[in-house]
Amino acid sequence: MSDLALFFSWAEKPFSAILPHNVDSYIQYCLSKGLSPLTINRRLSSLRLFYYFLRIIQEEPLDCPIQKRHFLRKPHPLPRDASEEQIFALFSVITNKRDNAIFTLMLECGLRVGEVCALSLDDVLFDDPSRLKVHGKGDRQRMVYLPPPTVSILKEWLTSRPVTNDRAVFISQRGKRLSVNGIQFILKEYCQKAGVQVTCHQFRHAFGRRMAEASMPITSLQKLLGHRSPRTSQRYTNLSNPSLQFEYDRAIQQAQEGI
Description:
Elements: H1 2-11, H2 20-32, H3 37-57, H4 84-91, H5 97-109, H6 113-118, E1 124-125, E2 131-135, E3 141-145, H7 148-160, H8 180-194, H9 200-213, H10 218-225, H11 230-239, H12 242-258
Antiparallel strand pairs: 1-2, 2-3
Helix pairs in contact: 5-7, 5-9, 9-11, 10-11
């Protein structure tokens, strides 16, 4: 209702008089006001649904002035990961074995906070190689590999983990599975102590950035991160492109030598 009120207040015309070029003008007006493509697309969706509703209730069909071309492309911002300095400062204040294992899995394996919460003891496979069975979005499962230092940190926690009936890998002081909010609260306290601002998802972004810097193929990174599309994983190569940096360094050196 708010979107409709804003549009018709701007248009100063009845709904039957709105034409596609009026929508074009409205989009330009919204852009001039600094509205994001997401906000503009939402307003257009509200208008389109309104005209679909009118076609149902009116005896004479009314053409919808909202066309496919009106919708703006959504921006694809680069992932905002944690810097190496922030990561070092944060882990320097983490002394609890459980918490160290939690945030190490996010950083070294790219796990989402919800995936860490969902881990059960049966999901930990200390074989050769050591792996985790991760329960991701949409109940999709994947395997991620554990580097030796991470294996040691995880084993150190599991050997000291209190005995409880709950099969969760990470439990609270009450012996129950840790929640997403619980882990986020723990991280917030460590951030305050370290004097940094880092979110759980930034650990995952840092993992993706590190793998891209190591020239991991996109399809492999996609499987490790549990992305549906390789285009999502492609963002990390845009964030860190070693080959592009090499070509830039070579070109700028030649340019400077020619000056």
